[in-house]
Structures are given as structure tokens and as C-alpha cells.
Amino acid sequence: MEKKNRKIGIMGGTFDPIHIGHLILGEAAYEQFGLDEVWFLPAGNPPHKRNRAGRAKDAQRVEMVRRAIASNPHFVLCTKEMKDEGYTYSYRTLEAMRKEHPCTEFYFIIGADSLFYFDEWKNPERICAAAKILVATRDRAKEKELLACMERNAKKLHGTFLKLDTPNLDVSSHELREWIREGKSVKYYLPDSVISYIQEQKIYQD
Ligand SMILES: Nc1ncnc2c1ncn2[C@@H]1O[C@H](COP(=O)(O)OP(=O)(O)OP(=O)(O)O)[C@@H](O)[C@H]1O
Ligand SMILES: O=C(O)c1ccc[n+]([C@@H]2O[C@H](COP(=O)([O-])O)[C@@H](O)[C@H]2O)c1
């Protein structure tokens, strides 16, 4: 039987590749909000990232996540969106999760860049009805602007937006892909197990 009143963090991302920023956000949310688990949810077919030529295949993104979280007992891989047909939307995924786990409280984790476009996502008010939103700073966003945007969204979408206490983590998948292509070291930005997989599979080399 599933424990009642569980608190689950959802760390959704394209993860192309997963990096320390994503892992630190998951761990910070776990600790700050007393979560039971954090589910890493690779985005199936994100509508906002249509041109993904030259990137990792879906199975490779999933495998990189599997390897990256393997050593953390409260991190779980969730491949729910990989089975979806067509584009994947967070409101659908979260509503399905709520249905499957009615006694669970969900916390959807995003960075500041996602927050600034959150009200343009599909049915954002339904995302807010299904989960609380945890927001981490990024790109040295001004604290005042970040908090103001969270407040605006909370009012407009009738949601709960909570600040994650993380430092600015200056790392992004697109920059890491670029470094790999240029033959630069990405050690410590990615877990070793992910780096060796990228090398074996020759991902992001050209
Ligand atoms: N360094 C970071 N600091 C804070 N949030 C982050 C960071 N990296 C990613 N995120 C957040 O994690 C989620 C998934 O990010 P995603 O997989 O798109 O990685 P990314 O580094 O933003 O990728 P890309 O550079 O290709 O756009 C998003 O909500 C994003 O805002
Ligand atoms: O549902 C949407 O309209 C939507 C639009 C943009 C992003 N998302 C989700 O937000 C998470 C982070 O997205 P990304 O592009 O930064 O990797 C991931 O779970 C996406 O599926 C969802």
C-alpha cells in the first residue's frame, strides 16, 4: 500500500543532457520541502523544442537520467512522458499523476527561465491545480523580479509558487553540448557515468 500524504517533487526536463543544475535542484527541493521522493521526468516530445536534430535520442536521454540519479535513493526515474503520442504537456502528465496517486501532493520544480514563460504553457492554471510550483533562480535573475513574477502567476493562475533556496547555478545543457562538440572538458558539470555514456555513444560530437 502506498503511504498516505506523500510529497513528491517532479523534476521535468528535456535533459539533453541532464547536468548538475538539475540534480542540485532535485536535492534542494527534497531537503527544503521535506519531500519523500523526487521523480525525474524526461520530457517526451516537448512542443517548445521542435528542432532537436543533432541531439540525443529519447532512449539516450532516459539512460543519461538513469545513470545520473542511480546513487541517490530518493531520486526516481519516471518515463511516463516517453510513452505519450504527440506532444507532451505538463498539465496532462500532472493530472494523470494526481489521478493515479490521489493522496500524493506534487511539487513541480522549474528554473527562473521556465517561470518567465510559464503563463504561455498549455493550460498553466491546470498545472497549478495539480501541483505546487517550486522555482529556482537562474541566469542571475534579480530576486525582486523573480518574486514579483511568482506573485503575478500565483494570482493570475490561482497557484502556489514557492522559492527554492538555491544559488545561481551557471550551467546549461546547450552550453555543455557546445563544449562537448568543441572537445572541452565537462568533468564535474555532468556525473562521470553520464560523461562515459556520451563518449561511448558518441553523442553531441558534431
Ligand atoms: N542551472 C540551472 N539553474 C536553475 N534551473 C535550471 C538549471 N538548468 C536547468 N534548469 C531548469 O530545469 C528544467 C529543465 O531544464 P532543461 O532540461 O531544459 O535544461 P537546460 O539546461 O535549460 O537546457 P537547454 O540549455 O538546452 O535549454 C527547466 O525548468 C530549467 O529552468
Ligand atoms: O506543458 C507545456 O506547455 C510546457 C511548456 C514548456 C515546458 N514544459 C515542461 O517544463 C519542463 C522543463 O522544460 P525544458 O524545456 O526547460 O526542458 C519539462 O517537464 C517540460 O515538459 C511544459
From TrEMBL:
Annotated GO molecular function terms are: nicotinate-nucleotide adenylyltransferase activity
Record key words, sorted: ATP-binding, NAD, Nucleotide-binding, Nucleotidyltransferase, Pyridine nucleotide biosynthesis, Transferase
Which Enzyme Commission number(s) are on file for it? 2.7.7.18
* One Pfam family hit: CTP_transf_like
Known catalysed reaction(s)?
A: nicotinate beta-D-ribonucleotide + ATP + H(+) = deamido-NAD(+) + diphosphate
Task: State the family named in the UniProt similarity comment for this chain.
Answer: Belongs to the NadD family.
Described by its record, this protein's role is as follows: Catalyzes the reversible adenylation of nicotinate mononucleotide (NaMN) to nicotinic acid adenine dinucleotide (NaAD).
What's the protein called, per UniProt?
Probable nicotinate-nucleotide adenylyltransferase
Organism expressing this protein natively: Fusicatenibacter saccharivorans
Q: According to the entry, what is the taxonomic lineage of the organism?
A: Bacteria, Bacillati, Bacillota, Clostridia, Lachnospirales
> Gene for this protein?
nadD
